[in-house]
Specification:
The protein contains nine helices and no strands. The relative contact order is 0.13. Helix 3 (50-67) runs antiparallel to helix 8 (203-226) and helix 7 (179-201) crosses helix 8 (203-226). Helices cover 75% and strands 0% of the residues. By secondary structure, the protein is mainly alpha-helical.
């Protein structure tokens, strides 16, 4: 409902759905046409969702790799080996450690920006980190503290990403217009999670579902850590809800 009032978000939702469709189609056929549609839809998403579009190009190469018609076990081994090498290099390189710390600091800084110098309740803003973080320069925080706060913030951020605005925290009458959609989302969410797990557990379906699940999970994690406003989090959640509805539908169809 809220996202439909903004033409940029409508186009963003449509382009993201096209990305998902072409990615799954590429995983199924590995043809050039699906790859071209994927690239064009990614460019369209970048044009209309600038900041989120930049994030897309960080995870899309991995998603395309996982969609290739290579033995699934081999792909997992290759990804695991690449991850181990990356961790080893990170431990040895102080430059990369500094880059990693800067990335975590930027994530915290983005979320803090929603709660600095404003009335949080008036603007429906929320906090996901411990209180001291909002009164401390994130550049002075040590790596263990950054990792601890990121882990805590991810849990709290995902709570808000998936469930906000909460019906039990009604602050104004305008929220009542959104609650029917939100309550429907609450009913659909458990079925969508079950549908994702079922797709991953099926050998002949896992290679089709995994690239799209990786893409959506990446966005859920990053957006959960950086957004601190209920109105904005609803709009970005709407980018992903159609995809969740598809998996929920696969479960509900089996129950009927």
């Amino acid at each position: 409902i809220i996202s439909a009032t903004n033409i940029r978000f409508c186009i963003g939702i449509l382009s993201f759905l096209l990305i998902m469709f072409s990615l799954i189609n590429f995983a199924k056929h590995n043809n050039a046409r699906s790859l071209c549609i994927l690239c064009l839809s990614a460019v369209l998403f970048y044009i209309y969702k600038d900041k989120a579009g930049k994030l897309l190009f960080l995870i899309l190469p991995l998603c395309v790799f996982m969609a290739l018609n290579i033995n699934f076990r081999k792909k997992l081994i290759m990804c695991s080996a690449a991850f181990i090498i990356l961790v080893c290099v990170l431990q040895k390189s102080t430059h990369l450690q500094g880059k990693a710390m800067t990335t975590l600091q930027n994530l915290i800084s983005s979320q803090k920006g929603f709660n600095m110098g404003v009335d949080a309740q008036l603007y429906s803003n929320y906090k996901i980190y411990d209180d001291f973080v909002y009164y401390t320069d994130e550049k002075t925080l040590e790596l263990p503290v950054l990792l601890q706060q990121t882990a805590k913030g991810l849990v709290r951020g995902m709570w808000h990403f998936f469930l906000a605005p909460f019906p039990w925290e009604t602050r104004n009458i305008l929220r009542l217009y959104y609650y029917p959609q939100n309550i429907f989302w609450y009913l659909i969410l458990p079925f969508s999670i079950v549908g994702m797990l079922m797709s991953l557990l099926r050998k002949h379906k896992a290679h089709l579902a995994l690239p799209a699940i990786l893409l959506s999970s990446f966005f859920v994690i990053i957006l959960s850590l950086t957004i601190g406003n209920e109105g904005i989090v609803i709009r970005y959640r709407d980018l992903l809800t159609p995809y969740f509805y598809i998996f929920a539908g696969s479960v509900l169809c089996r129950l009927t």
